[in-house]
User: What shape does this take?
Amino acid sequence: MAKLLGFDKFQTLMRTIRMQGGLLSSIRTLFRIDDLPIGDLIGEDKYGNKYYENNAYFYGRNRWVVYSEKVGLNYDGSQVPAEWFGWLHYKTDLPPHLDPSRPKYPWMVDHTPNLSGTSKQYMPYSTTPPKIEAWKPPN
Assistant: This one.
């Protein structure tokens, strides 16, 4: 009878709101990531991104990342480090902090996100003269 009246959906909604940390936190999460996923916290990287998993969801949608609060709404996929990228895309089933065979050498560079569109973007220096020059009006 409860399922017929939709009370199970209401219970799922209340459980989701409770797991998100309350109504205001749920609204803020819904605004930031357009979803209210429920899952187990698997780990956190050094940039503050949190990684979750829920095997009750479809394969391919059961692992996700919630980006750090410090980036606000300016998040993109390049902010995920390589070790967590492999876990998110099912290249490995072990998260980076549980994988003993994951290499870590001193010559490995630290992760940097894609900076295109910012003031720190890569701009190559050109040694060839431009084919088109700006017009300068006569005095």
